Amino acid sequence: MPNLLISYQEMQDSQSEHVKRIREAGFELMVPENPDFCKGLCDEQETIRTLNNVSAVIAWGEHYSAHVLRSLPDLRVVARAGVGFDRVAVPVASECGIAVTITPNANHQAVAEHALALMFSAAKQIIPADRAMHQGHWPRVNMKPLRDRTLGIVGLGRIGKSLATRASALNMHLVATEPQPDLEFVKQWNIELLDLESLVRRSDYVSLHVPLSEDTHGLFRKDLFSKMKPGSVLINTSRGGLIVEKDLVDALQQGPLEMAALDVFEEEPTDPDNPILKMENAILTPHVAGDDGLSVQQMAMEATECILELQQNRWPRYAAINQDLEDRWQW
């Protein structure tokens, strides 16, 4: 009987529909002994021990390095819950005949909602007002509008589009940068396409929704921060590596940025001494944007469906990352 490991505790409920499907398909369900496994805090040797004799894994935040993948001869599928795959050495997975999938349809709306919540928190000063009230004060709060302001969306994939439709309902002006835009969507929602530099110069709020890659790593650094609109707000619910954090701190301290709202960081969990944690004009959440109760269920089911399709030697083209493996895929 093949083993299937579910990394994330919130997906391990034995009564959930995806667990029932897993067992009906003949898999033995496994969970990590170390609760920190899913957070990416385990070294390579512990990761290998945890995944020993595992055929498929519904993965969360753990790292699948080249060494890890090459040390797991039984592993057939890494089904990432979410859309990021930067923690998986994908070329090595292909080399080893391991399929890598994501859940493209499950959590984009949750991430868009979280980005919007961060934007509201920044504009309406929710957190400092709440803190002052709990301390017995009745503060005057310097709030800003969202209506009639410009939102710059960096990346118009599923999440960027979901944010755009929500922001349009708030009467925000929409600009975006996207290398392969859906022109019908752009026209429908009256979005102006710009290059990145023009976008940051014009936007009151900038929200990041691009994957982390060699081209996007450190995309927001000192020179780009210097071109941003004075008093603007930066929101990142994508990947921490898109931003050079020391340059972000300078931009928050010296301008032109007024605030930043981050769900992701260069290192996760972030260092307790990270200076961004001390800044009052930074709103921070611990990489939870896509993890509301509904999206977790949907991610678990979509990841499960990918594994079950692959078990039947059907290639899930809509979700597979290493498409080069399709022609030679065999469970």
Account of the protein in words:
Helix content is 34%, strand content 15%. The chain is of the alpha/beta class and 331 residues long. It has two domains: 3-106 and 292-328, Rossmann fold; 108-284, Rossmann fold (3-Layer(aba) Sandwich), CATH 3.40.50.720. α1 (17-24) packs parallel to α12 (293-311) and α5 packs across α7.
Widest beta sheet: strand line-up? 8-7-6-9-10-11-12
CATH class of the largest domain: Alpha Beta
Contiguous uncertain segments of 5+ residues: none
SS content category: alpha/beta
Major sheet summary line: 7 strands, parallel
> What's the shape?
globular
Using the coordinates shown, work out and report the CATH topology of the largest domain. Rossmann fold
Helix content: 25-40%
Structurally, the number of domains stands at 2
Strand content: 15-25%
Q: How many angstroms does the end-to-end distance come to?
A: 14 Å
Q: Encode the helix/strand succession as letters.
A: EHEHEHEHEHHEHEHEHEHEHEEH
Continuous helix count:
12
Q: Which homologous superfamily in CATH is the superfamily of the largest domain?
A: NAD(P)-binding Rossmann-like Domain
Give the number of DSSP strands: 12
- Annotated CATH architecture of the largest domain: 3-Layer(aba) Sandwich
Instruction: Indicate the radius of gyration in whole angstroms.
Output: 21 Å
Write down the overall mean pLDDT. Answer: 96
